[in-house]
């Protein structure tokens, strides 16, 4: 028992030492390059009124269409790059022979509680057990809608490598992931798993899972590279000029996966939303844009489909190529001509009067 305690204490000490050595660590926690303020900007009363009395359709008016991707997974992608959106920021990326799972959340709620908190609009397209063999799991930061205890506990049994930001490993270890399978990266640090290189890059956000642990772990955006492909995954972030540096160092990208949901003008410094996602996309150097972080949880005051609708409209005006696969739809981005607004069918099915057979 004492040996286990000593090993745990040693790892905790090493983790703290690495955190304190980071340029992003200041005082008792991590910080953004530019100050973003304590949270909600301005008078919170209108926001509370909007939350409790707003008339927007924050949940879908009917069941969302979900496909089973296992048949597609049985054959390799012809182009070397295939993406399966499993909801929110969870994606199975198949890139040049490797499979990477991002921000896996298969639990029913994005919450520390099993009986309260934002609940899924849809079931996961597949169970964790039905996932194919994985080469790596990428966790961008420690918020509940990106790091799910029950999901990590199940994935830990697979003994797959985990890549994450500084400090997040303490959560992964607590959830059962073997320490030797965890790699924590500071911004601009790099690690390779098989054919895929992972680089932690700047983002503008915050961290914490409860009282007293705000910003004790780092948040990051992520660059994934192989000999043939370059991908960018934003995690959670507000708009930051650092995207230009990421584009200069690592672009151009074949696929840019940016968060567009859970946004509000009052927290525009920590989430992108559709308008800022397009600005970030341009700063990164363009490429095919895939919106993520929407359509699974009610995390803001906007209508459930507003992020996608706004993005499609603005992207059309700006001639940005969008990739919008449906839930569980496994597609190769280079073989898709443009956006597929699958979410519109959900509302139409409910609004069109049914006729007698």
Automatic annotation (TrEMBL):
- Where the record annotates domain Metallo-beta-lactamase, the positions are 99-294
Q: Which InterPro entries match?
A: Metallo-B-lactamas (IPR001279), RibonucZ/Hydroxyglut_hydro (IPR036866)
TM region positions: none
One Pfam family hit: Lactamase_B_2
Q: Which is one Gene Ontology cellular component term of this protein?
A: cytoplasm
Where is the stretch described as Disordered? 17-39
Q: Which domain of life is it from?
A: Bacteria
Q: What is this protein's record name?
A: Metallo-beta-lactamase domain-containing protein
């Amino acid at each position: 028992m004492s040996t286990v305690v000593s090993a745990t204490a040693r790892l905790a000490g090493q983790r703290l030492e690495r955190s304190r050595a980071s340029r992003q660590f200041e005082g008792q926690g991590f910080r953004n390059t530019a100050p973003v303020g304590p949270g909600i900007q301005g008078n919170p009363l209108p926001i509370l009124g909007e939350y409790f009395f707003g008339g927007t359709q924050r949940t879908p008016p009917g069941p969302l269409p979900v496909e089973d991707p296992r048949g597609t997974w049985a054959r390799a992608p012809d182009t070397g790059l295939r993406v399966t959106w499993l909801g929110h920021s969870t994606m199975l990326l198949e890139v040049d022979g490797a499979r990477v799972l991002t921000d896996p959340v298969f639990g029913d709620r994005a919450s520390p509680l099993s009986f309260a908190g934002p609940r899924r609009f849809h079931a996961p397209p597949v169970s964790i057990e039905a996932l194919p063999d994985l080469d790596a799991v990428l966790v961008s930061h420690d918020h509940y809608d990106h790091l799910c205890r029950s999901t990590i506990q199940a994935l830990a049994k697979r003994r797959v490598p985990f890549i994450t930001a500084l400090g997040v490993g303490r959560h992964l270890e607590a959830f059962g992931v073997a320490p030797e399978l965890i790699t924590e990266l500071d911004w601009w640090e790099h690690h390779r798993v098989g054919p895929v290189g992972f680089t932690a890059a700047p983002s503008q956000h915050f961290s914490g899972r409860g009282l007293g642990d705000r910003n004790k772990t780092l948040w990051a955006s992520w660059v994934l590279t192989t000999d043939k492909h370059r991908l960018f995954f934003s995690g959670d972030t507000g708009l930051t000029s650092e995207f230009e540096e990421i584009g200069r160092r690592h672009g151009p990208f074949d696929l840019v996966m940016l968060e567009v949901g859970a946004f509000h003008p009052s927290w525009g410094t920590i989430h992108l939303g559709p308008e800022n996602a397009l600005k970030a996309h341009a700063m990164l150097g363009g490429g095919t844009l895939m919106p993520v972080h929407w359509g699974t949880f009610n995390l803001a005051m906007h209508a459930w489909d507003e992020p996608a609708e706004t993005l499609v409209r603005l992207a059309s005006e700006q001639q940005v190529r969008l990739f919008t696969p449906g839930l569980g739809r496994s597609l190769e981005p280079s073989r898709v001509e443009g956006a597929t607004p699958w979410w519109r069918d959900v509302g139409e099915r409910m609004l069109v009067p049914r006729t007698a057979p």
